[in-house]
Amino acid sequence: MSKVFFDTSILVYQLDKRFPKKQVICRSLAREAAGKGEAVISTQVLQEFSVAATSKLKVDPVLAKGILHRLVNMEVVTVSKDLINEAIDISMQNKVSFWDALSVAAAESAKCEVLFSEDLADGEVLRGVKIRNPL
């Protein structure tokens, strides 16, 4: 099994009607990976998704909570103090934001081969995790 990590933006695009092409791509990726049991997210992604869905996209909080309940069917990496320390190192070594580095650290800890994100350089490999920008 080849696990893949989803950054917040990829999950948020599934709801964003302003970008229909991105919405279709992101829904397809998430559906396929979740269906195979290969999808991984982190507690950071859950938190960011909740905020983006309700504040940026104005999704009803009850609906957003329902979506979150479905997302936790994916493998969820809990952000710990050790993961935060790893993220700080990744951020400093690779000159990426702390938040992006935290996604990399979470993906690495879950032994993901790929991290889907539009915020990092497509094709780059950080800590053994290949970055893919599907958009």
Write up this protein:
With 135 residues, this protein is an alpha/beta fold. The protein has a single domain, classed as Rossmann fold. The protein is 54% helix and 14% strand. It has helices at residues 8-13, 20-35, 43-56, 61-71, 81-94, 98-109; strands at 4-6, 39-42, 75-77, 114-116, 125-126, 129-132. A 6-stranded mixed sheet has the order 3-2-1-4-6-5. A hairpin with a 2-residue loop joins strand 5 and strand 6 (129-132). The chain is globular and about 40 Å long. The two termini are 24 Å apart. The relative contact order is 0.19. The model has no long low-confidence stretch (mean pLDDT 94).
- State which percent range the strand residues make up: 5-15%
Main beta sheet strand tally, sense and closure: 6 strands, mixed
**Average pLDDT figure:** 94
Q: Would you identify the CATH architecture?
A: 3-Layer(aba) Sandwich
The sequence of SSEs as H and E is EHHEHHEHHEEE
Segments where pLDDT lies below 50 for 5+ residues? none
Please state the structural category: alpha/beta
Overall structural domain count: 1
How would you summarize the topology of this molecule?
Blueprint: E1 4-6, H1 8-13, H2 20-35, E2 39-42, H3 43-56, H4 61-71, E3 75-77, H5 81-94, H6 98-109, E4 114-116, E5 125-126, E6 129-132
Parallel strand pairs: 1-2, 1-4, 2-3, 4-6
Antiparallel strand pairs: 5-6
